[in-house]
Amino acid sequence: MVVEYLIIGQGISGTWLSYHLQKANKSFIVIDNDQPNSASRIAAGIINPVTGRRIVKTWMIDELLTFLVPAYEELGNELGIKAIEKKSLIDFHPTPQMKIAFDERVKENTDLLFHPKDQRQYQNIFNYDFGFGKVDPCYIVNLKEILPAWRKKLLSNNQLLEEDFETPELKQTDAGISYKNIKAEKIIFCDGIQSSQNPLFKNLPFALNKGEALLIEAPDIPSTHIFKKGMMLTSIQKDLFWIGSNYLWEFSDDQPTEQFRKQTELLLRSWLKMPFKIVDHKASVRPANIERRPFVGFHPTYKNIGILNGMGTKGCSLAPFFAKQLTDNLTNKDQILSEADISRFSKILMR
Ligand SMILES: Cc1cc2nc3c(=O)[nH]c(=O)nc-3n(C[C@H](O)[C@H](O)[C@H](O)COP(=O)(O)OP(=O)(O)OC[C@H]3O[C@@H](n4cnc5c(N)ncnc54)[C@H](O)[C@@H]3O)c2cc1C
């Protein structure tokens, strides 16, 4: 089988890369082993344009939103699903200091942050002592439907192999690469945390980060907003809510922990005035890195071997944009943004 590109992984990164390549009329095969707790299969899909205690805009968010909202809408239209939904985030201040900090930022950032007048609006649903602010717009990406729907499409086009990629089978050739019976010009790894074990990419400054989430049934919570008080609470399908997450830099495995479950249940009991039932508990590891910038581009020595990775906590906003940059680089030799291009790590990659 001869194709232009071989893509490893169909999380949010591999999905977007294969989507953009398809639009550019390029031929490709995706290999994905459908790992049930890969980051994209556990994530809530939240795009929050602000971050941190100082509530500052996230990296490149204006440019990313301008690109990704129509991109998800177009993908959704092609798949016959609603791929992205605009929501606002109701941020319950956990302390009086955080309320003051938020109110200060509202004065400076008038396009995203708001201080709603009626501070009693959610009193029948939540316990909160220090009021709330609003972040608008935020978005929810419908990962639960996008990933299987795109997978189905790839399968029906004979563009997906559902199996493990086995690194020893990869060979460099004069024309590109070969893998078992596949010949391709280039191979691109979109395999999330697996790339941190890949002999060619393991020197990239990955800093893997574990996160957990509970799924709860809570029929009386409105699904209209994302709610935040220490953790994010958002509807992911009718009457089913996702609550998470924690951020662990040190961990011994990728499994759910009793500690997270207890801590989150306590939070829910003190926060919600409504009944809820915990129906599932998930954990995964984020392909995060020290710089909090993606890894995009080709190995400095093995020019036919590339990567689209390092999405950290923000795969839903970064993957569509940087998959397009990689596609434009492949098709038109357009430059990849220097802050994302792995050529910034050429020296350590050549070691
Ligand atoms: C608890 C939690 C909550 C999160 N919430 C959000 C959120 O709300 N918003 C947001 O933007 N981000 C969120 N994230 C981060 C987000 O999940 C990641 O940034 C994103 O999913 C990374 O996507 P990826 O496609 O690069 O990697 P992955 O999702 O890990 O995909 C890798 C794919 O490669 C496949 N694969 C791996 N190895 C092999 C192999 N050897 N052979 C074949 N296939 C292979 C896997 O099966 C998988 O499909 C969250 C993460 C966690 C853990």
Walk me through the topology.
Layout lengths: L1 E7 L3 H12 L4 E4 L7 H4 L3 E2 L2 E2 L4 E2 L3 H19 L4 E9 L3 H13 L4 E2 L17 E10 L1 H14 L3 E2 L8 E3 L4 E3 L2 E8 L19 E9 L7 E5 L1 E7 L2 E5 L13 H14 L5 E10 L8 E4 L6 E5 L5 H18 L13 H4 L2
Parallel strand pairs: 1-2, 1-12, 2-9, 6-14, 12-19
Antiparallel strand pairs: 3-8, 4-5, 6-8, 7-8, 10-11, 11-12, 13-16, 13-17, 14-15, 15-16, 18-19
Helix pairs in contact: 1-7, 3-7
Q: What is the name of the CATH superfamily of the largest domain?
A: FAD/NAD(P)-binding domain
Query: How many DSSP helices?
Result: 8
- Structural domain tally: 2
Shape: elongated
The poorly predicted ranges are none
Tell me the CATH architecture of the largest domain: 3-Layer(bba) Sandwich
What's the story with the biggest beta sheet? 9 strands, mixed
* Total beta strands: 19
Provide tags for this entry:
alpha+beta, nine-stranded mixed beta sheet, elongated
Structure description:
The chain has 351 residues and is an alpha+beta fold. It has 2 domains: 2-42 and 145-204 and 290-349, 3-Layer(bba) Sandwich (FAD/NAD(P)-binding domain), CATH 3.50.50.60; 73-141 and 207-286, D-Amino Acid Oxidase, subunit A, domain 2 (D-Amino Acid Oxidase, Chain A, domain 2). It has helices spanning 12-23, 39-42, 61-79, 96-108, 143-156, 258-271, 315-332, 346-349; strands at residues 2-8, 28-31, 46-47, 50-51, 56-57, 84-92, 113-114, 132-141, 160-161, 170-172, 177-179, 182-189, 209-217, 225-229, 231-237, 240-244, 277-286, 295-298, 305-309. Strands 3, 6, 7, 8, 13, 14, 15, 16 and 17 form a 9-stranded mixed beta sheet that branches. Strands 1, 2, 9, 10, 11, 12, 18 and 19 form an 8-stranded mixed beta sheet that branches. Strands 4-5 form a two-stranded antiparallel sheet. Helix 3 packs across helix 7. The longest helix is centred in the first third of the chain and has 19 residues, at 61-79. The chain is elongated and about 70 Å long. The model has no long low-confidence stretch (mean pLDDT 96). The structure holds flavin-adenine dinucleotide. The site of flavin-adenine dinucleotide (FAD) has 42 residues, from helix 1, helix 2, strand 13, strand 17 and helix 7.
